[in-house]
Every structure is written in C-alpha cells, then in structure tokens.
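Researcher: I'm preparing a figure for a lab meeting and need a structural model of a single chain. I don't have an experimental structure, so a prediction will have to do for now. The sequence is pasted below. Please return the structure as tokens so I can convert it later.
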Amino acid sequence: MRDNTSPSSRAFENLVLAASAPLLFCSQLHAEPLSTELIYTGELWSNQSGGISQDEVYLDNLDLTLTLDAERAWGWDGVTVFAYGLYNNNDTLSDRLVSSVHGISNIDTTSMLGILELWIDKTWPSAHSLRFGLYDLNSEFDAIDTAGFFLNPAHGIGTDYAQSGERGPSLFPLTSLALRWQGSVSESMSYRIAILDAVPGNPENDNHSGIYWSSDEGLLLAAEADRQFSQSRLGLGAWFYTTETETLADPVQRDPSTRHNKGLYGFIDHAFAPVDWLPGQLNGFVRVGIADSQINQLSGYTGAGLVLSEFLAARPDDAVGLAVATGVTGADFKSLNRLEGVDTAAHETNFELSYRAPLGDVVSIQTNLQYVVNPGAERDSDDALVFGLRLELSLM
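Model: Understood. Here is the structure written out token by token.
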C-alpha cells in the first residue's frame, strides 16, 4: 500500500518517536528522574490597517521538552540532561502582513522541525554550573520575567541584540553549540558567560538546526551580571563577535571597512509594593541597549512594560499588560539607504496591549493588540494595527 504521509509529517513522527525513547527507557529505570512537557501554541493574527496587506494568518508551534535528572537516574551528582524539540508551520506574519524590525509574534518563523536545545549541565553545591551543547542564548541571557508576558519578540531579547550576527545570535528557531559558565559572587549577585558558535544552524539551509562548525564563522562571546534586591532584579550584559563584519559605510564618503560587532544592554525588573488604590500585583520592567551603529540597522533600543495580575478575586491568574518597544535607526544605515532612494525613519516603535486568561491547568488564551509606528523603519510605510489571539494547550 502506498504511504501518502507527507515527508514533513513523517519527519515529525520520527522526532516524536526519538524523543519518546528516553522516556520509555527511563520509566523502567526510575519513575521520577525524567520530566516532560508538551505545549501546543496556535495564533490567529489579523492586520487591520497599514503594513504590507490587510489579511489574516495562522501560526502554530509545538514544543516538546525532556529534562533528565541524571543524579537520580544514574547517580551522576549534579548533572542534568535537557532536550527541546520544536515544530512550526510554514506561515509567516512579518513577511506577509507587517514588515516589522521588532517582529509581531515570538513564534513567527518559517517552517521548522528540529532540535532547539540539547545540552548537559553540571551544577556544584556552590551554585556554580557548567553547560555544554545546543543552547538558546535567550533562555538565560537578556531574559526578563515580567517582559516574558508579552508576545512581541523584542520583549524576549532586545532587538539591538537579536539583529546581530550573520543569522542572528543563538536563539529561537536556530541555535548553535555553546559552552556556558554560571556562578555567584554572593547570595544576591550572580553572573554568566558563554562562548557560542557565531552562526547558528546550517548556513546552507535556513530551516535546519543542528551543529555546523567552521572556523571562518568565529565566536559570539556573551556576558551578564545580575543583582537581586528585595523587590527588583538589576542586570547588565555585553556581547562581542570575534570575526570582523563589513560596515555600512557610505561608499561615497569613505571606503567600506570591517570591524567587530558588539553591544551593551541593561535592565531592571521590579515588583511594586501594593497600594490601596490599585487592586492586585503590579510588576514592571525597563530595558535599554546599544549596538555598533557602523554595522547594525539599529544603534539603540528601549523597551518597557507593566503587567497587572491578581486583580480579580474570582480569577487570580488573569493578567493584563501594556508595553512599548522602540528601536533607533543608526546614522550609517540611514545614510546608506538614502543613496538607494529609501527614506528611512528615525525609529520603529511598537505598542502592545495584552490580556491572558488561563482556563484551568491545560488551556490558556491571550488576546493581543499591537500598533506599529513606521513599520520596517521606513517613512513611507503606513502605521499598522494588528490584532492577535493566542491559544496555548499544555498537553503533557
């Protein structure tokens, strides 16, 4: 009988079977060492005005994670093994409806089926740890708890950071091989440093993750230090590429050259003390970053937001948030575009309003409204108004 299953479906089935093998094996060893999580996310987006076109698009994403406590399973003291597989459909939001520098949805990508993370971690009683493998930089670096409520990608990792590198840094949906060290200076202060392959995935295949190493790609060096206060977390980070990159030099004014791409960022995540006139718990964040203006489109970025939760006694897990993300266009980028007849705006700014409502332990919905000023950082682009609805199912 002929097999009518599509290649992508067969590939996904193989991924699930492969990911399930450790589960079956460890269930015979010990019931507790292995934890699993399977989450399906579906989003319906509609661009009401501006941008590229007024239309609708459906995005979906399937995440499967396996976490193995190797100490319980095999007696390996302080060792954890982690695997993260994902699937995304082939529809895109930014390419079809809104050409945005920041993006609109944090699951928006082309068709993807593969491994996002696969690492082994060794932790010592002193709270120091060493991690090696395929690694999502944003899982620990530039990760702000309050900002994670929002759907715009700029609040996951700042756009100043996300724009860097030949294919972006090591994060969703393509990651690279990394070595990460994390330690603590005191109970309230910690730090982490990482050395990563500067070009994640396979440069010859935009939709393929995995380990592909070439000395020509160079390295991405990342560092971050955090200080925890009673109600706040303060962070400062830096990034640097070891391989030089061509600049955006204006060929009329000067010859193009090469230099190392680099940047700095800082953030504060704060839980406000309760006040009589405001029901519930209010949390807020501010994040700023700068990038090399001679290489990158954006020379600076600022993001900020507020999230209010626990304001309904009958629904304590509901939350509502308002955020803004703005990227400042670099002078060299504007100068180069001027020669090509493109009238570049000084910034692209995104406003986001969102409400999340869990419906039990399995289902949650999140409504989202975003207004984009100067989409694509171009003056002739009409401001876009985009409405989204996210459905999330925790299947395991």
